[in-house]
Each structure stands twice: as structure tokens, then as C-alpha cells.
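Final report, results section. Input specification for complex C-07:
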Amino acid sequence: MRNALLLLSWCGLVLTVLPALLYFSGVSDTGTMKGLLLVGTGLWFCARIPLPEKRDRDEDAL
Amino acid sequence: MAEFEREPVPQERLKSLRSFVSLYAGEHVAGTEFMIGPLFLAAGVSAFDLLIGLLVGNILAVLSWAFICAPVAVSERLTLYYKLERICGSGLVRIYNVANGVLFCILAGAMVSVSATAVGLPFDMKMPSLEDILPNSVGWVGAVVLIGAVFGFVAAKGYDAMARVASLSAPWIALVFLACGIVALPALGINSLAEFWEVANRKIWTGGDPMTGQTKFTIWHVIFFAWFCNAAMHLGMADMSIFRYARKWQYGFSSAAGMFVGHYMAWISASLLFAVQLMADPSNGKVAPGPMAYSAVGVTGLLCVVIAGWTTANPTIYRAGLAFQALYPRSSRFTVTLVAGGVATVGALFPGIVMRLLDFVGLYGTILVPMGALIVVEHYLFPLWGLERELASRRGIRFSLTAGVSWLGALGVCGILNLVFGVQVFFLALPGWLVAGLLYFSLSFVRKPGARPTHTAAGEVPNA
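Structure output:
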């Protein structure tokens, strides 16, 4: 489950910048780019929030 | 910060390089980057001055962290506040804390303003322009008060949950900034990287006159701004509190992650967004991050402006609350943080503050940075000249006159440089730091006339 969420979150992160690159290259239009960015954002947060945080013992103190 | 506030961090609690890299990368991609980038454009900077100036300034900032802040922090392993208390006495540190708290509130206010531009967008709120000083509409007041109240309340409740949101948002925010920059390029007529330099010079950063109310920026302004916008953290030594956990002083170079993601890529991207807006309508000088990000990347941009503003405003309000609480230790943290949030909200109501963010950031560094010079001078020079370190702590002094005169003297010199000689605020932090160090060393030396060089290794305390 953890690995699946991690994979999804990384897909989300890629989708946060890839649509912009496709738009710059002329491959996608504005609407598609904005829609994909939103999907990437949703994926990142939906997959990341349930993942337990990996912290060092005194992370808070930092 | 609940641990090791008044003792050195023990060896077993030191942290890995990765922690510092992610901390810096997250902390320096804030909502205010959306404001700073456009303000460079409004300052009439040229493409060469901006791109090279930011490169040089950010390298100098990283070197300041690596060669000045981190070595002292690793050697002492104390927080800035405790170290200052030992040098200056608790009375002077309280004054420093108040100055720090007020400046934090104004900074948080700028972040509230940034988020308000995103929240107000769906309601067709009138956005503030570069010339606006007072609140420009009832809608603006409503959006700022709403956002300020939410930010202040969440900060007062403690920011554990928000800190989690901040840590998981950080990489996403950085990539949305990058996406904004990439998407802005075709709108500016750049369809391949080969066209970038020519268009950047001709259409984007043309180096012309600044916009109304803004200072004209040269490469020196850009270098000094990039170097000193976080001067309170490096030369001012505030990040001693962070690097006291570092295994080696070389971890100071991890600050490069924050500088080159937040203060290079994000500033340039935000600047490009403003260029797109100006190209579409040259009369639209409104620096409103919400609409700019929305027009580039849609709802994602709007979310990014709100989340970047929120995740950075919260710890800033929280820190301001802690600084004020030092004045009244018996008051509840909840109440003082709410008050800090209220002060930040009042500041956010006035667009004049956020539209002059570059000047404010310069002032912020100038006021706080001289205290860092005292720590550096004590650490490196005092042992060599046989001067007693941490005098306030050793002799139970509550207010070190030597330290107080050095701080105020440095601020006085900066004031004269600014008011009499017209030196702009962006250039004052360095002379302030040098004057404070020189004054502190001279006054300490005068107070101990018999002092001679002893060639003691740095870090030892000859008079202990």
C-alpha cells in the first residue's frame, strides 16, 4: 500500500510539471495543460496525505 | 523549538545533510516569491543584471551561510537567542525579540496579502496596484481580514498540522513555480530556448525606467538584494538555531537548495508571469499573484498561491508570537500569537507595504544583522586578543551596554548613510554588520586595556 501511494505521489509530481513542458513544446493546448496540472496536484496530495511522515527523531526541533 | 534551548545539542542528536537540504528547499519557496519576482520587473532591471545578479547574490548568500553562520553554529551548538543572551544579557535580547517580532508580523502580513489576491479572485475583487498605499476596496479589506483571521487562529492553535502540510507541499509548490515559468514563455513569444536571451532583453527585462513608486535596480541592487534578503538568517546568525544540529560546518552549503530553487527559479518564474500580464495590457501594473498564477496554470496556480502563502505565514506568525511572549512570559502563547496575527492582518490591509516588499526586506536585514556580527567577533577575535567572551552570562549582566551601543551605533551609521548620503536600504546590511563588529570589538578592547594577542585557537575561552 505504501509503495503504491509513493508511486502515485511521484506520478502526481511528474504531472505537476510535464503538462507545462508539453504546452511549451506545442503538444498540448492550454485547457489540457491546466486540467493535467490539476490532476497532478490532486494525485500528489491524495497520495501523500495518508503516507506516514518519515521523520528523524528531532525533526521538530529543527 | 522545545529541545536544547539552553544547552548545546548533544552529538547523538545531530542530523544528516538531507534534513538540511529539504528544510532549506522548503522554507525558501514561499508565497512572497510571487511578489518579489514581479517587483524586479517593476524596478526596471535588465536581463543580464537580473540573471547574473541573482546568480552572484545567491552564491554570496550560500557562502555566508557556509563560512560564517554554520561554522559558529557547529562549534557552539546553541540557539541564536541563548547565545545572544550570554553575550548581551536578557534585557537586550528582549528588545531584539520585539524588533524581530514586529518585522516577522510585517513579513507575515505580506504573505496574507499574497493569499488574499487568490481568495478574492473568484469574487472579482479589485486587486491593489503598485501605487496603492491604503486599502483600495471593501472587498480587499474583507479578503485580508478573513485570511488574516484564519492564519492567525491556526498559528495560535499551534502549527503541527500546518507544518505537515508545509512539508508535503514544498516540492509541489516548487514545481508549480517552475510550471508557471515554462507556461509563461510561449505567451512572451519564446518557443524555443534559443530564443530566450533575445526576447528576454527585448521584451521582458528591458532595463528601462522603473514603474511609479519603485526604485531603479542595477546589477548591484540585484546582487545585494539576493545576498542580503536573508541576511538576518546568515550574517545575522538566526540560522545558528538550525545548523547547531549539523554534523559538519560544510552542511552550510545545503542553503544552496533554498537559494537556487526559491530565490532564483521561483523569482524568475514569478517575474515572467508579470511580464505576460504587462504584455497583454501594459496599463495593468497590478502585482496580484492570484490572478497571475491563475491565468498561467489555472486552479493549480490559485491553490499554489494560497498554500504557499499559508504554509509560510503560519510559522512566521507563530515565531512572532514567541518573540512577543518573551516580553510577557506569563501571557498565554495562544493570546500573543492571536495578537501577532492581528498585527500581521493590519499590516496586510495596506498594499503600500507589500508593494514595497523589496525595501522592507532590505530594512529587515539592516535592523537584525548587526547582532550577528557580535557573535562572530566574539567567536573568532576575542580569543586571539585575550578578551572575555559571554561577559553578560559570566558576570550576571542583564543589559550589556557594549553590545547595545554596538547595535544601536551600527543602526545609527546605517541611518546616516541612508538619510544623509542617500545610500539605499538594499546596501545597508553589510556596513551595518561591519560597523557593529568593529564597534563591539573596539569597545570590548577599550574596556580591557591590558589585552594583547594570545594566539589562542578559536573556540577556547582564555579567561574562563
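The first helix of chain A runs from residue 2 to 14. The CA atoms of residues 36 and 44 of chain A lie 12 Å apart. This concludes the modelling results for the funded period.
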